[in-house]
Amino acid sequence: MQDFKYSWLVTIALVLTAVIVPLLYFLPEREAITDDPWAGMPQHLPHTDHSALMKGPFADGPSVTRACLECHQKSAEEVLQSVHWTWESPPVEIAGRPQPVILGKKFAVNNFCIGIGSNWPACTSCHAGYGWTDGTFDFSKSENIDCLVCHDNSSLYVKTKGGYPADGVDLLAAAKSVGQPTRANCGGCHFRGGGGNAVKHGDLDESLYYPVDRVDVHMGKHDFLCTDCHQTQHHDIKGRAISVSLDDANQVYCTDCHSESLHADERITAHVQTVACQTCHIPEGAIKEATKMHWDWSAAGQDRAEDPHTYLKKKGEFVYEKGFAPEYFWYNGLADHYVLGDKIIAKEVTFINRPRGSIEDLDSKIWPFKVHRGKQVYDKKYHYLLQPKTYGEGGYWSEFDWDIALRLGSDAVDLPYSGEYDFTSTEMFWPTTPMVQAAGKALQCIDCHGKTGNGRFDWQALGYEGDPMYRGGRQTVSNVKTAEVK
Amino acid sequence: MKARERTSEMYSVSRSKLSIISSTLGVLLSICSALIAQDSHSIHPTFPFLDKNNRNVLSSGQAVSTMNSCGACHDTGYIESHSFHVDLGLREFGKSGKTKGGRPWDLSPGLFGKWSPNIYRTLAPKDEQQIDLGTADWVRIFGARHVGGGPAVRSRDGQRLTSLEISAADSETLSRNPETDELEAWDWQKSGLVEMNCFLCHLSNPNNEARITELQSGNFELGNTATLLGTGLVEKKEEGWRWNSTAFDQSGNVKSDFLTPQNPDDNNCGLCHGLTSVDRETPLVTNGCEPGYWSTETTGQIISPQRLMDSGVNLAGKKDLSRSWDIHSERLLECVDCHFSVNNPIYYQESEASRPAHLKFDARRMDLKDYLIRPSHQFAKGRASQAAGLNATIGSCESCHEATAIHDWLPYKERHFNALSCESCHIPKLHAPARQVYDWTVVTPEGKPRLECRGIEGEPGSSRALITGFEPVLLPRREVDGGTRLAPYNLITSWYWVHGETPRPVRLQDLQDIYLDEENYHQEVIALLDTNSDRTLSDDELVLNTAGKSDVIKKRLEALGLQNVRIMGEIEPFGIHHNVTHGDWALKECTACHSDESRVNRPFILSDHHPKGVEPRFVWANDIVLNGKIEEHGQGALVYKPASRSGSLFILGHDRIPWLHWAGFSSFILVMIGIVVHGGVRVVMARRNRPNHVSVKRVYMYTAYERFWHWLQALAIIALILTGLVIHSPLTFKFLDFESAVSIHNIVGFILLANAFLAAFYHIAGGQIQQYLPEPKGFFSQAIQQTIFYMRGIFKSEAHPFEKNPQKKLNPLQKITYLMILNVLLPVQVLSGIVIWGAQRWPSLTANLGGLPVLIPLHSLAAWLFAAFLIVHIYLTTTGHTPTSNIKAMIVGWDEVVLHKQNRSSK
Question: Phi and psi (nearest 5°) for A145?
Fold first, then answer.
């Protein structure tokens, strides 16, 4: 030891160990960061500049697609499987129905423009393809894929009826500009759902192109793109909507990035098992642009003063609302869907996609919804909702004759029409998820609770005995109910 | 089992019967639900309004008597006699000892008798010669903040005021005519009495303005009726108040649509107490520094669940203020949830004195019916100076909160809880202006005092002024559990003229007379105060800031015949307990208190101007330890500088004993200078005298363990000195945060202790200890020899007088130094450190050793000595064979020892 040349190194190591080990052991632990939402963000790799690669000239959309596919062969196969192309959900077994159900935009009924059957060219102007103008469209033909609608970065690409590029669109410029989808690519269709800005969703509208912090904390303050949350792999885009989807596979969740236990406040943490993040963090919908809350088709066809926000002869009466207070329901991520042909009780309200869940269903939480209430046409004899042809030759929008429109529409969707029709009330549910507010703008206790509360929640309708602050929450309610049964 | 039988019975009932039953039930249910829906806000039955003669007001047309109407079911006599809100000090009026710590002319601890610089008027005792305010005028002026009953019904000796013999010389039966300024007899029969006003607190929409208007007009009996204006029950017509017969049903009862008694909500309390709003949506606004609400004016407290950023107040930094005005209000607590009736069976708890120790909760409760008949209207409260009999009926924050369960991040939790009230950290700032000064030495043209406000920039009366808010002053408060803790306060300073041997404030009328001629200042006053000679008095000029100005005003007052006129100043503390915020916004920064800029003794502005030579005295500060100092700051401003070092409090990072601090620091610097001089001379001399050739020998001087021990000690001491510096002065040394510095310092201290123990064992067991023991024989001469070497021989490159070898490593000076360091300094440092560290674990041990105020300075002094030793020690390592040979030896163990001649020859 005495002659060991590096004994001094050993001494230093021992001394440091003697200090550092106790320090590490005894130093009090600081509050660990439980939430690192940025870890969930996708990396945006720089996109290859295609301006030199796309030579042109391009006579039409498919010729651009062919050029794309020269290099991106696999992409075609991926897109042909995707719902943005098929507008069709995979078959899902649903209790009470003999056969697996297929839904998706292609078959779904709603209480806006009702459905796409017989109205293809108008609806398919938002289809990620070219030429879907009737029931015979070939979904296996990859050259009809519209690559540009999602990848054009020139902002000059516009689609029109049947999904064709509008006249005068510079396809070469669009092709040279291709890149990752921006807000403009997604927003071009999704912000204009229902046929115009802000009509349909209540939480998606053109204010999200360049949103201020107040509209959406993610897209505003943090400058998110749609695809930062709707992350996409192999053209499979994350996200589900109960207007068209039957299952909740591949859904986007707040908890993809945020920890469930991120609230320092125990009182708030206690809410997390019962209340969706959205409930407190989306206190209002349609923050900047009014959205359609009510649509009465039965008033259509009259020669009255028209205003796109109150009355159109083609469509009937509307009510638009800005900054609406959501309605709250238990929701486990799934919904009971109305499928074309399902029987209805005309005197009662028909729910197109009533959210599933209840106070007893521990998988469900209280969620905020935009509820779109409508009056739409149904068959008086067969007792089901009908599909009218609205757009095109013989359609209601040109003839203003429901009978003709219903005959043509029913033929297209293969649903018998008795010749007798009337109007019935329907409700459609839209869970609000974008337009998220930071903590400082989230709901407070008084918004839902208390003697002088603002009464956002109808506690008894939700299955509580009353305000759970006074009467106990889910657990107490089930205890009380169990006691009653015994 | 039973339930199942009943179910099967149900099924046996035939279908037709079932349908009848169900339809009947349905009808019944719908009726019930309709009834419930209609009356969902109240289950209070309808009842008639009775006048003071117990006749229905509909037939008599008289004012309503709440005592009779509500008293038909509730024991209003009991309620009236169990309510400080009613009594306001009447019962304690003029009793000796009840105004302890108050002003000489305070007559009770309540609004009836306690002088208020806000309203200024002085209630006269019975035998007062010069009467400012009699009982009737008190009702007219103070009735706005009195619920009625008590002093508005009964005389000071308990008779009904209507039964008193009327005399213009008796303060209970006179009034001053505002027109003539003459005292006139007051006819209580004519004015009637102000009965306890149940409506003010128990209706959702009481009309306080109409009530105050009637009281101010002297129509006392109509006050309670006027409170109903706007309900539809009563209207005010030219000829007087008229009952609306359609609001009453056929039996003469008030229809429930018109009157629904309720539990008092925050707005009821707010009518008198402060600005409240339970509405989160409508932006809350304040009127600058003139909120017109009592507690909001005195303390800046606002009760609302609203977020500050959502309010309408022009707050500085508003967009980031996402906290609410009050966390309890945000969490939906109402005033009465904490300030509950003390006999409310929901809250009632038997006192500790009689409750058996094994019983946590006595489930026996008063019947709700009995409570509703005789509910005490004494409300649980903290410890404001009013209603002292109810002090601490709320207990404290700990009555509801388990603070120790959640403050895990806070080191020395118990010590903090023993030194600080919860409010100190959880009310870090009031985001509203509050009163700073009432200066009645001057009056404005409106006859009001000069006002100062804190927490506001710009024109105080304007809602456009910027509200910066203020951090309350932390004062040591004696608490119920016997402890003294810092708690937040606002201090309101008042200046005013008094006269007489037993001082009384100069009457408002006299004051206005000497300043004002109608609504304009007297020319003499303008000439006195107009500093910029524009013949008008601006707000800045209206102040008596020189002895000369005060003298002139004094003479004018004396000219009115007043004797012994002088200015008095007072400071009244107002405790702040509301506008609490939760952890996110609470004070969490260690350096908020543990630094030179500690909040604990930050000067708190008392008054921007003050009359020369007048020192304000604290009033109604009985619970507060007044150990601070009133100091003058800048141009005439006064501040209160609290003392942080009180009792056992000695705040690390902030408190220090200056002379000791400087003594330590200068001795360190002196040692540094000495070393630089000594070293410099050595370098210069070394160049002149080439060293003699000496022979050296490699000797294995330090064993591995000795080296380990030495370096561990070195590292520990350096770490302790560095972290100690941060703890000593965190704002000067910012390389580490205070909290980490404390933790590291504690841990390393124990490492040092463990190292010292092991080394002591090693040295004793191996006999090495004797190296440190100076030989008594010849020690002094050897020490002198060594000293002479350091002062002379070392410069001549002479050899050390004592040869170093593994058996005798230390020279005599080293021996004595290390003996002192290791046996005196190190133990002092380690032991004082342990006791400081253990102040939370063994508080009595620490206290017995002098407490932190002794131990911490001792620890700091020893640290300076260590630092001084450290640099001398390092310097002396350079005096070996070569400058680095000693350090090398301590690193590798082998030393190059200069052989002395005698040894050389012997080898």
Answer: -65, 140
